Amino acid sequence: MRRLKWYEWLVALVTLALLAWLFVNLDSERPRPKAPAAKSLPPSRALASTAAASLLEGYADPATEPIDDLRKLHRVVTGYFSVVKDSSKNPIGGNADLAAALRGDNSNKEIFLPADHPLFSADGLLLDRWNTPLIVHPEAWREIELRSAGPDKTSYTADDLILLPNGHQPR
Predict the structure, then answer these.
(1) Would residue 79 count as lying in a domain?
(2) What is the pLDDT at residue 20?
(3) CB of 49 within 8 A of CB of 114?
(4) Per mean pLDDT, which of 34-38, 53-57, 149-153 is the most reliable?
(5) Distance set, CA 75 to CA 54, 62, 70, 153 (Å)
(6) Residue 72 needs a FRET pair 20 to 30 A away by CA distance; which of 47, 81, 109, 149 works?
(7) Contacts from 114-117 at CB under 8 Å and sequence distance 24+?
(8) What ranges in 58-148 are assigned the alpha helix state H?
(9) Number of domains in the chain
(10) Could you tell me the sign of the dihedral formed by the alpha carbons of 70, 71, 76, 77, in that order?
(11) Pairing of strands 161-163, 143-148
């Protein structure tokens, strides 16, 4: 059996490189199929575009108990802390911080709620069913107390609704 000389190896290698180049170039010149145009969602479905938005369905519904609104938001916040593990870049210090984090200003850049969700005020704060900004009181990392001013729209009065970080109401 005869051994190949160096120039025969070189010719074989150049031939293989030329074939590979042709294969890649011919493939890139082929027209790509166009992706189907995205269908716009009807307004009723547009808000349910995220899992968090789905959890908030019925928020501020007069047919439900007001404390249920805080429970729904608590589920969303729990989901947020399950996904976003690094709090050092965007710590939650209050309503504005939590609202921004849910809109995507977090270390993962994960959007939990669209900026136009009815939960947000024009200023971007989280609102209760009486259109009063919620009081977000962080007690520790992953532990946030939620407080609604209640029907009188005045914070820290007898009609306030409070949900502790464990998801229960104080006794």
Answers:
(1) yes
(2) 76
(3) yes
(4) 149-153
(5) 11, 20, 9, 24
(6) 109
(7) 114/46, 114/47, 114/49, 114/50, 114/53, 117/47, 117/53, 117/56
(8) 66-83, 95-102
(9) 1
(10) positive
(11) antiparallel
What backbone torsions phi and psi does residue 82 show, to the nearest 5 degrees? -70, -35
Note the pTM of the prediction, 2 decimals. Answer: 0.69
Q: C-alpha distances in angstroms, 20 versus 9, 15, 119?
A: 16, 9, 56
pLDDT band at 34 (very low <50, low <70, confident <90, very high): low
- CB contact at 8 A, 113 and 127: no
Amino acid at 11: V
Q: What's the CA gap between 48 and 59, in Å, rounded?
A: 12
Q: Quote the domain boundaries for residue 67.
A: 44-163
Q: What is the CATH number of the domain that holds 59?
A: 3.30.700
Assigned domain for 54 exists: yes
Whether 119 maps to a domain, the answer reads yes
Per-residue model confidence as pLDDT tens digits over 91-144: 899 999 999 999 999 999 999 999 999 999 999 999 999 999 999 999 988 899
